[in-house]
Amino acid sequence: MQKVLFVLGSCLAVILFLLPYCYEHVKAALEQEPVLTSESGDTIHDIAQLAPPRNFHLKGDDRAKSVPVLLYHRILASHELAPTHYGADGTLSSTLITADQFKKQMNYLQANHYTTLSLSEFKAFMISGEPVPEKSVLITFDDGHKDNMVHAYPILRKNEQRAALFLITSEIRRSKEGYYPEKVQFASAPELETAADVFDYASHTHDYHQTDQQNAAFLVSRTEKEIVEDLNYSIAMLGGAEALAYPYGEKDRESVHAARKAGFQLGFSVNSGTAVPGKKLMEIPRNVIQSTTSMEDFIYLIEQNSK
């Protein structure tokens, strides 16, 4: 009898230990809301509401000849880092940086009088050659992670800095949900609307941030017709969009043609370099900021590419 009671007691202790963990995960599952759909007329942020480019009133010597573009993905506080954020070799995911790192980088740009361009200002610079300040930079984020709203948005807003967010529109939730940093979560429509004073929204495809069974990105393994259909869906969800970031940076002649056919005027890659007006408009270079990017690396990158 004592043995039976001991076994029952042990089972009860295990259940009580796991109960809080199970509750949080069940709660997270219950909080999952339907995603937005273009069939129901849902849109994220009407592109017509984007602020027009500023008139910088620049002299010849004050104008930028090129602009560095920065690429971020996830931003997490140090205390939020979990085993899921590390690879098998124990290193932090390359597409993730801490909020402290991001804050230091943005504060450096502010302290050194760099102008963070809006997407409309960058577009005018690239396509029409409209002047922007010599020390200009475009900050971009890919995917549309919820942690961008939690950590990046307040820092950028406090510094009065702009950024562009390339959204996987099939991942956008209709309603705001709880924040679970150990998981991969995406921003909701209400969060994106609130953050529109900092972020301009563009496309990272609708549902083509995937690879096929041969590990080929959908943008290079699907037909032009299929790609255009996906991109049109994304544009409809955004209420209009003229800029596309290629998932995984993968593209080919057919996918670029499909992007142009869908109406995109700018295409963003993951190749390092600096953006020059009128050049490589559908493969604009972006400098990926990784977990291993030191402050010295960041400063060097900015200074070398701001001409």
UniProtKB/TrEMBL annotation:
Residues 135-307 form the NodB homology domain. GO terms for cellular component: extracellular region. SUPFAM superfamilies: Glycoside hydrolase/deacetylase. It holds the Pfam family Polysacc_deac_1. Keywords: Signal. The keyword Signal applies. Signal peptide: none annotated. It comes from the Bacteria. InterPro entries: Glyco_hydro/deAcase_b/a-brl, NODB_dom, Polysacch_Deacetylase. This is Polysaccharide deacetylase family protein. It comes from Metabacillus mangrovi.
